[in-house]
Design a protein that fits this description.
By secondary structure, the chain is α/β, with parallel strands linked by helices. The chain contains 4 helices and 8 strands. It is globular.
Length: 214
Amino acid sequence: MRNIVRSALSAALLGAAALVGGCISTPVTSLEVSWVTPQLPQAPFKKLLIITVASDEFVQIAFQDQMAAQLKERGINAVASHRYFTRYTAAERARFKQSIDESDADAVLLARVTRTDASTQHNADSVVGAGGVPYGDAMGIYGAYGRYYSSPGGDYALKTVTAEASIFAEKGEKLIWSARTRTTNAQNVKSGAAAATQYITVILDVMKKDKLLP
């Protein structure tokens, strides 16, 4: 009887450890807060231009194309700008305006990273990049690291990324909606396309909740 109890306890502890390990390693994107204007336009956008600010052009391509396709499936005339920005500055805003004017869009969806927090944790496994060196910040909208694998012992980085998606009406002049998301364990995002897909899923759910989508 004692052996049976000991075996059951061991199995329970191993299951709990696996659950905790999965929670630690899996990237999760969730909504922190959203805001929508009380004067939300009743008519759908004639043309919604998608603009992104990210450190990697390939991630921006994935996000813009995926987001445009998803919005079109929901009846929104969304267009990927195919203009790519690495910084959200006063100088770049002139390029934003030029992109909007040249597109003839009446509204703009701007997605960008607003904050990245990193901390170092100690565990039996350390998270490192190829050759034992962490990859650079190349996951664009998440600002996450590249591919990782584990090696025994040492420290590993935990990365939390805050991003913002906003919609501006009147050719980018009037903010009508904004959502802030938080991605934990962003250091374990495996690809830019995967990062874009997870982020888009959250944003679309929020847009529907806030009545920007049917």
